[in-house]
Write a structure and sequence with these properties.
The chain is mainly β. The chain has one domain. It is built from two helices and seven strands; from the N terminus they run ββββαβββα. The strands form two sheets. Strands 5-6-1-2-7 form a five-stranded mixed β-sheet.
Length: 100
């Protein structure tokens, strides 16, 4: 099940994605149709476990039917993360959760 609170970290077009076990960074695959291995935004605990410091910018609530998600938007205090996902590639992968 997708966490109800996640962190959206973006740095110059790159976004941190994790798999359903919170392991990251993960990469989307453009054109992927199946979604058995779902990718999502990390929780605060998962970001902390990766030793990533970040600045909280704002919060957003997203509602899908009866589910309400809280998204904490932040800026990571790291060098440019070349191994994170390009945000423009996330939309073309069905395995990326819509909250991302």
């Amino acid at each position: 099940m997708h966490p109800v609170e996640v962190v959206h970290l973006e740095h110059d077009g790159k976004v941190l994605l994790v798999n359903e076990h919170g392991e990251g960074p993960q990469q989307p695959i453009q054109g992927r149709q199946e979604n058995s291995n779902q990718l999502r935004l990390p929780t605060q605990e998962e970001v902390t476990a990766m030793n990533i410091e970040w600045k909280h910018l704002r919060e957003t609530r997203v509602v899908f039917g009866t589910m309400v998600y809280r998204i904490l938007k932040g800026y990571p205090k790291i060098d440019w993360p070349k191994n994170w996902a390009w945000k423009d590639e996330m939309i073309a992968d069905n395995a990326v959760h819509p909250v991302a």
